[in-house]
Design a protein that fits this description.
By secondary structure, the protein is an alpha/beta fold. It contains eleven helices and 13 strands. Helix 3 links the parallel strand 4 and strand 5. The radius of gyration is 19 Å and the shape is globular.
């Protein structure tokens, strides 16, 4: 009998990737989705969609009933104040925990957090991711849980990094962080693989794992640009003052026109932080996991039709 794994945030870039990776491994997936609109990429015989959201406990019960594990990929990334992230990234986690603990056979709880949780004072988003982790640590009780903290995630259908990568591939490097900043990256398939390892791990542990592509010491902006295009024509380093003005302007406009902004002063603080390097040694040792896709290979797959990489 196939095991069933519940996934929240299944319509997102990471959620979809994890869902399809699990299906390839012979796992049946039950995903929470906020709309009844068909999503062609999720039309799969081993994927069942449940309409609902993290505020609706009835839909959450339908989602997790009979599941062996839950992977929480849902997360708010747009907004400029704490309240914009509270409902999904904090209260949503609490609701999921409540429903999981009410099950006759509670599922393992795997929570996709962010490396930003390591620095909760930087932005409302980072604060919310850390608060979501604290909810799990304080309220999970006997429920087995694993928190994954990935750095920036890239891969097919990613919108966050693709525009920067595409420009750099064409010879235009736009550097948003400091010259001495170091950061880690992970391909979405490696993230899906570590999620699968968490499902297969039968050790009773409740822990936080940082996960990355395995490059010790991380990347600099320059090193990523060299991989994308060793013949870079233009290298623009955006001044921090200009970034802050753009972020603040977007916050003001979002209040006027009532939209949730992605680029904010909080996001600028995250981009300007000097250390987003992961240490995935514990995940590799304890889960028996090895990342398979270094940056060169990940970018080669992303731009497979181009000979530049």
């Amino acid at each position: 009998m196939q095991r069933i794994v519940a996934i929240t945030g299944i319509s997102g870039f990471i959620g979809q990737s994890i869902a399809h990776y699990l299906c390839q491994a012979g796992v049946k997936v039950r995903g929470l989705i906020r709309t009844s609109k068909k999503i062609p990429s999720l039309e799969h015989p081993d994927i069942t969609l449940i309409k609902g959201n993290l505020d609706n406990r009835e839909s959450l019960h339908r989602l997790v009933d009979g599941c062996s594990s839950l992977i929480n990929c849902a997360g708010a990334i747009r907004g400029y104040k704490k309240d914009d992230f509270l409902a999904t990234n904090v209260r949503g986690v609490a609701n999921l925990l409540h429903v999981c603990l009410s099950q006759h056979s509670p599922p393992k709880f795997i929570h996709l957090s962010s490396l930003a949780a390591r620095e909760p004072g930087l932005s409302p988003y980072a604060w919310s991711k850390r608060e979501g982790e604290l909810v799990i640590q304080q309220r999970a009780h006997s429920l087995p849980w694993i928190i994954l903290r990935p750095p920036a995630v890239y891969g097919p259908n990613d919108e966050a990094l693709l525009s920067l990568f595409t420009l750099a591939r064409k010879g235009i490097a736009i550097q948003l962080g400091t010259r001495d900043a170091k950061f880690s990256l992970i391909h979405v398939q490696d993230l899906a693989d570590v999620a699968l390892r968490c499902l297969d791990d039968h050790n009773a542990r409740s822990t936080i794992f940082e996960v990355d592509d395995g490059l010790s010491g991380g990347y600099s902006w320059e090193s990523v640009f060299r991989v994308l295009n060793p013949r870079m024509k233009i290298h623009l380093q955006i001044a921090p003052t200009l970034l802050w003005v753009l972020g603040k302007s977007n916050e003001v406009l979002s209040r006027l026109f009532r939209y949730a902004p992605l680029f904010t002063t909080g996001k600028v603080a995250e981009l300007r932080h000097h250390d987003w390097v992961c240490d995935s040694l514990n995940a590799r040792q304890e889960l028996g996991w090895t990342p398979q896709i270094p940056l060169e290979e990940g970018l080669r797959r992303l731009f497979a039709s181009d000979n530049l990489i």
